[in-house]
């Protein structure tokens, strides 16, 4: 059995144990599967935590107290070795389907089903999770209970589907050459975007993207930005507003980047640093440089990228500039 298969089985067992746990027992599950000094990277307001006890107290206990009957609905499940440092990773992406029974982070309960979008990266060594990147779309949950903390999105936010080909759950070994093809496309895309940053070409022609993207690509962006479909609409509804509304864009690298078969993924801490000049997310600009923590998951079809699921820790990016959308929501829900 390959190391990838061993790690997939370990993470599947971990997920099964988590799904059977509650807020009183989840700590034991985390201690079983995580190393004592596991480094956990979570979105704002959870941020960085060290060790299973801190992860449990900060995230999982409150989460399982607020949400009942939590089901992990995976759309992509993959494993591989990061080119950065040779670390072994397993990535899961999809939604948590939950019953929203108690308030969470100041977001009022709905008493109804909710879908919480997530991406979960786990690095494994000697049978234990030693690093974890855990992203969820908090703004997407807020939208589901009727709270819109940002102006109108340029794209369209909804409950996103998984891969059109329904082959994202990769449990069997795949020819490494297929992953190499996918990663080569991702690396070329990173080079092309880096050149745009250097030249500040924020109204670039579609031919730049057509080198790596299919013309009818789909980009599933975070709530607050939304999804776009086809290269022209991606440029109009996300890329141009993003590039024109931010200056001094710097790519900081990734903690993890790898591919398996037709799928690739990465996350950074932070991936990007930039300064808003006004317009992005419908908000004014300023002189505050802010970091962006970003997840990308890609599907390749033939020799082009076809689908891309993206999560951005927008609450963290906004908080660095003095806008804490969670605190503002608490005040609106409970005015003095």
Automatic annotation (TrEMBL):
Domain SnoaL-like as annotated: residue spans: 11-131
Residue ranges that the Swiss-Prot or TrEMBL entry lists as coiled coil: none
Spans through the membrane: none
InterPro entries noted in UniProt: Cyclase_SnoaL-like, NTF2-like_dom_sf, SnoaL-like
Listed PANTHER family: ESTER CYCLASE (PTHR38436:SF1), POLYKETIDE CYCLASE SNOAL-LIKE DOMAIN (PTHR38436)
Name of the molecule in the record: Nuclear transport factor 2 family protein
Organism: Thalassotalea fonticola
